[in-house]
Structures are given as C-alpha cells and as structure tokens.
Amino acid sequence: MNKVVSNATAAIKDIKDGMTLMVGGFGLCGIPENCIKALTETGLKELTCISNNAGVDDFGLGLLLQKKQIKKMIASYVGENAEFERQLLNGELEVELIPQGTLAERCRAGGAGIPAFYVPAGYGTEVAEGKEVREFNGKPHLLEHALTADFAIIKAWKGDTHGNLIYKETAGNFNHPMATAGRITIAEVEELVPAGQLDPMQIHTPGVYVNRIFQGVDYEKRIEQLTES
C-alpha cells in the first residue's frame, strides 16, 4: 500500500512520447509544479495535455509549450499565454477548446466509467460542429465523450502514504476529477503524512485512485492577475 516515490523525476519516469496527460489545477492555482518542471527536463515530445488552462509563458504548462513538447492542448481557458497564441496561429499546436463545465464533466465521466453524456453548453456555436444533437425537455443538447488519460498528474495540499488526498480551496476544482480519470495517477503534495493520520471525513480523493505520491518542494504558487484595492 505504500505508494511513495522519492521525487517528481521518479514519479514521471515511465511517461513516453505521444502520451496523453491530464494536468490538474485551476489557472495557476493547485498545479503540479514539481512534475511539470521534471517533464521539461526529459525531452519528451508529442504530448497531449488536458488541463483547465495552458499556464503562462514562463510557468505551468507554458514551460512545456516553450520547449514545444506539447502537440495538442485540450483546455477551457488559454488567454494568459502568448507562446500558446503564437503556436496556434502558426499551425504548430492542435487545440480543442471546451466550455469549462463540460471539460470538468468529461473528466468526471471518464473517472466514473461513463462513456458519454448530453449537455446543452456549446449548442449553436463552433463547439457543436460534428457532434450529435438530441432534444431533452424542448432544449437541444450535444453528445460529449468522456476524457481519460495515460497519466493524471495532480497536486494536493496533504496526502498520506496510501495516496489519500486533501485539497485546499480552489485547488480541488480539477485535481479531483482528473485524479479519478488517469490510468496512472501521480500526486504531489505539500505535506505527506503516514497512513492513518488524515481525518477520513476530510479526504477528497481516496487513495484507491492514486498510484504514486511524493512530497513536493519549492512551490512558487504564482498569481496570474494580482488585483489590489
């Protein structure tokens, strides 16, 4: 049951070129900083990344974009990354933009074993192109397919050696559903404790979903847009 590995490099060691990765976080909040940095040092390429966002130019998934390690981005918000924009406009990057709620549900469905579902978001827009449409209660809905990944790479506030995880506030938004939808799930945590020390009633992701866990270091926790009053 002990799922602890020494660091990010050990955790990601068997990720290969061309694999699909789910990368947790919301904006720059709750992103797996250690694993992303380790990935930039591998030389991996042709990755497909599923994430709420594409980071910024010099942080988060922006670091992988700088090194052209990402072939395709599946995301809901990409507006803070100039390098992303450049690669998209130059035809260097495949992009699938998804309404944020639909993205979250596609990840959740993947983890729950639900192959597809209908949702009204996106009907009448470019999002609907090529998708089956059915009417429910007089309203058109699109058929959306679940998302899964070769690896889910997530970050939690606390975890134990069995892989049980607790998220802090906003960081739980995408980390939990993605943790359930990876064939192999890697969790980096700010605090790693022995099994049995977490309150069972506070656990957000049970350890059954987590394959590897380690205590991260040197978190920057950047803010995308600082607003002061």
Helix content estimate: 10-25%
What's the β-strand tally? 11
Strand content: 25-35%
Taken together, the total number of domains comes to: 1
Radius of gyration: 18 Å
Run of helices and strands: HEHEHEHEHEEEEEHEE
Low-confidence stretches: none
Helical stretch count?
A: 6
CATH superfamily grouping? Glutaconate Coenzyme A-transferase
**Rough outline:** globular
Task: Output the keywords.
229 residues; alpha/beta; Glutaconate Coenzyme A-transferase; 8-stranded mixed β-sheet; 3-stranded antiparallel β-sheet; 6 helices; globular; CoA_trans_fam_I; CoA-transferase activity; CoA_transf_BS; 3-oxoacid_CoA-transf_A; transferase
Report on the architecture of this protein.
The protein is α/β, with parallel strands linked by helices and 229 residues long. It has one domain: Glutaconate Coenzyme A-transferase. It is 21% helix and 28% strand. Strand 8 and strand 9 form a beta hairpin. Helix 5 runs parallel beside helix 6. The model has no long low-confidence stretch (mean pLDDT 94). InterPro entries: 3-oxoacid_CoA-transf_A (IPR012792), CoA_trans_fam_I (IPR004165), CoA_transf_BS (IPR004163), NagB/RpiA_transferase-like (IPR037171). Pfam families: CoA_trans. This is Succinyl-CoA--3-ketoacid-CoA transferase. It comes from Niabella ginsenosidivorans. Belongs to the 3-oxoacid CoA-transferase subunit A family.
Indicate the topology:
Blueprint: H1 8-11, E1 20-23, H2 33-40, E2 47-51, H3 62-66, E3 70-75, H4 82-89, E4 94-97, H5 100-112, E5 116-119, E6 133-136, E7 139-145, E8 149-160, E9 165-166, H6 172-181, E10 182-193, E11 212-215
Parallel strand pairs: 1-2, 1-8, 2-3, 3-4, 8-10, 10-11
Antiparallel strand pairs: 5-7, 6-7, 8-9
Helix pairs in contact: 5-6
